[in-house]
C-alpha cells in the first residue's frame, strides 16, 4: 500500500478544503492537549492520504512547501472521480484556484488541476490506469 503524505501550515484549513473541495472523508484527526492538529488521516474510495503540521522535526529538512519553491512541486496528487464535470463545477463554486482547465487527455480521460490553499497541486480526473 502507498499512502501519500504532506504538511500544511494551516491544518484546520487544509482539512476543511480537502473535505469540501476534493471530497475526501475524514478518518482520524489526532490533536495535542491544546486541540492543535498533529496528524490527519483521510480517504477517498480505497485510497488514503495523511498530513500533519509544518514543524521543526528531524524529517523537516527533507520537506518543503510550494510557497518556498515558487509554487513548484516534485509530486502531485491525482484523484479519480466518476463525474469530473460536476466535481470541477463544485470546486470552482467553492473558490478553488483552477490552474489547468477541464480537458480531454491524449492517454484517455477528462481532467483538471487545482491548487489547494497552500499551493499543493491536485489533478482530478476520470482516467483510471487500472482499467
UniProtKB/TrEMBL annotation:
It holds the Pfam family Glyoxalase. It comes from the Bacteria. Residues 1-127 form the VOC domain. Gene3D superfamilies: 3.30.720.110, 3.30.720.120. This is VOC domain-containing protein.
Amino acid at each position: 500500500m502507498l499512502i501519500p503524505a504532506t504538511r500544511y501550515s494551516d491544518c484546520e484549513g487544509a482539512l476543511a478544503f480537502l473535505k469540501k473541495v476534493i471530497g475526501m472523508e475524514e478518518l482520524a484527526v489526532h490533536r495535542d492537549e491544546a486541540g492543535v492538529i498533529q496528524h490527519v488521516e483521510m480517504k477517498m474510495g480505497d485510497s488514503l492520504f495523511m498530513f500533519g503540521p509544518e514543524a521543526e522535526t528531524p524529517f523537516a529538512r527533507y520537506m518543503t512547501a510550494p510557497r518556498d519553491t515558487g509554487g513548484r512541486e516534485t509530486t502531485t496528487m491525482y484523484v479519480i472521480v466518476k463525474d469530473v464535470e460536476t466535481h470541477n463545477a463544485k470546486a470552482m463554486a467553492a473558490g478553488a484556484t483552477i490552474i489547468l482547465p477541464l480537458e480531454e487527455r491524449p492517454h484517455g480521460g477528462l481532467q483538471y488541476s487545482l491548487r489547494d490553499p497552500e499551493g499543493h497541486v491536485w489533478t482530478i480526473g476520470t482516467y483510471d490506469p487500472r482499467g
